[in-house]
Amino acid sequence: MDGLLLMSMVRFRVRVDSFLVRVKRFFRENPGALFIVGFQVLLVDCAVMLVFGMGGLAEGVAVVAYFMLVAGVVTQLVCFVRDSRGGRASG
Fold first, then answer.
1. Are both 35 and 56 inside the same structural domain?
2. What is the C-alpha separation between 25 and 37, in angstroms, rounded?
């Protein structure tokens, strides 16, 4: 029984490592995505704050979230334009 548990743990570890490699590659290929994911996290935080009656704090966090979204979109746009001028754009 212990051998089966050990094999399952090893398989899980390999899957997690494979997932982390794909996530790292995604963020390397899409530098603005980190800002956009941050925007999404902060937006969910705002919703939770509103549920608990912290409207003032939620408003401030929403402003920060908006600027993160803008930074992510601008970063992606700059990378797209830069890559398309270098002939690396797909499509």
1. yes
2. 15
Instruction: Output the CA torsion 72→77→82→83 (10° steps).
Output: 90
Domain ranges, residue 11: 1-29
With b for 16 or more beta-carbon neighbours within 10 A and e for fewer, the 52-66 pattern comes to eeeeeebeebbeebe
* Total number of domains constituting the chain: 2
What residues contact residue 68 under an 8 Å CB cut-off, 6+ apart?
Answer: 35, 36, 38, 39, 42
pLDDT at residue number 91: 44
* Backbone phi and psi for residue 71, each to the nearest 5 degrees, phi listed first: -60, -40
Residue 59 shares a structural domain with residue 84? yes
Over residues 2-16, the pLDDT tens digits come to: 778 788 888 888 898
**Amino acid letter, 46:** C
One domain, residues 46 and 78:
yes
**Stated pTM of the model:** 0.73
